[in-house]
Design a protein that fits this description.
Blueprint (H helix, E strand, L loop, with lengths): L2 H32 L1 E2 L11 E2 L3 H19 L8 H19 L4 H17 L13 H22 L5 H18 L5 H21 L9 H20 L3 H6 L2 H16 L12 H7 L4 H24 L3 H23 L7
Antiparallel strand pairs: 1-2
Helix pairs in contact: 1-2, 1-7, 2-3, 2-7, 2-8, 3-4, 3-8, 4-5, 5-8, 5-10, 6-7, 6-8, 6-12, 7-8, 10-13, 11-13, 12-13
């Protein structure tokens, strides 16, 4: 990626951040009236708080990304229309659910349509395992994408948590794009999302004045999943796993644990490791601070995995990331001697 394109990425992030912040400030009074999140079994907040800031975050992301790829003036720098359309669709589904709850089945079906549109529209030469049947790989990717979209939603249950996870991931994607690993379109989309999330941070820092809502967390999961899939399609599988490793581990382990216990795993709960941490005496700032620091470390490991040509070293870096993630989750599961 040329220096001019790197500069364009920073300009894209700045524009998205400014647009996101202004829009959140403008729409918050309306969201106070139509999309107020009441505390429930899953919540970490005590007072009713407006949700739906994702409207601004996603609008800013798509607007800045489309403008950036137009300015890039490169035939290869185009965001595939299915990705754009699927992001809008899943955001609309999320907004409807934020305002008036949608039954589980139609919600999952619509999410599945959005994820499938992104994956099935990809060129056939984009493969992770070249020797297997493409229909099987694409079917697995649709299921994995649907899980990733929802786990991002599940993990969006604490002030600043989504920013602490997604800012390092999208920042790393921009860096890898600069190194020439990813297409310009992916890099610019990641830069736009990173900036839009930074614009959201002042409104979501503890105690949050507004939440993303499903209109934000679901399309963020879709866009980040698309970026990670680009890494996997470019045979950077270790990096694609390392970047979201904390979210993958926390959400997946929690789901499996609840299923093993015979719990109603599809209902609201507070048993994710980051939620248990606040119940165990960690402050919100400490939890998101540790998650952010972990993700910066995972981003560094992912960059190292991309830079090396050794499969053994990439595997070793993945193991190191897994150990670091497990240690953070273990700490979160242990009660602190005194509140911090």
């Amino acid at each position: 990626m040329a220096n001019s394109q790197l500069a364009l990425s920073f300009a894209t992030a700045a524009a998205a951040g400014l647009l996101s912040g202004v829009m959140i400030w403008a729409i918050r009074p309306l969201l106070l009236q139509i999309a107020l999140a009441q505390p429930n079994a899953r919540s970490s907040h005590r007072d009713p708080t407006p949700q739906g800031a994702g409207v601004a975050v996603i609008t800013a992301t798509l607007t800045a990304a489309v403008a950036a790829v137009a300015l890039a003036g490169s035939a290869g720098a185009t965001i595939p229309f299915p990705v754009f359309a699927a992001t809008v669709l899943i955001a609309v589904v999320g907004l409807a659910d934020d305002i008036r709850s949608i039954p589980v089945l139609p919600r999952f079906l619509l999410q599945g349509v959005a994820v499938a549109a992104v994956i099935l529209a990809a060129p056939e030469n984009l493969r992770i395992v070249a020797s297997g049947p493409i229909w099987l790989e694409r079917a697995v990717l649709v299921l994995a994408g649907l899980w990733f979209v929802n786990l991002v939603n599940f993990m969006d249950g604490l002030d600043l948590m989504t920013a602490a996870e997604m800012v390092p991931i999208t920042g790393a994607v921009v860096l890898l794009g600069w190194l020439g690993i990813l297409p310009a379109s992916t890099t610019l989309a990641a830069a736009a999302l990173c900036g839009a999330l930074l614009g959201f941070v002042p409104f979501n820092r503890p105690v949050a004045k507004i939440f993303l809502g499903d209109v934000g967390s679901l399309p963020i999961g879709l866009l980040v999943g698309w970026c990670l899939l680009q890494l996997a399609w470019h045979q950077q599988i270790a990096a694609a796993l390392l970047l979201p490793l904390y979210y993958l581990a926390d959400a997946t382990f929690t789901l499996l644990r609840r299923m093993a216990r015979g719990e109603r795993f599809w209902t609201a709960h507070r048993t994710h490791f980051y939620q248990r941490a606040t119940d165990n005496g960690f402050s919100v700032w400490r939890v998101v601070g540790e998650v952010f620091a972990l993700n910066v470390g995972l981003a560094a490991l992912a960059t190292g995995a991309v830079m090396t040509s050794s499969a053994a070293i990439s595997s070793l870096l993945l193991v190191v990331g897994g150990i670091a993630t497990a240690l953070v989750m273990y700490r979160f599961s242990r009660r602190q001697a005194s509140p911090t």
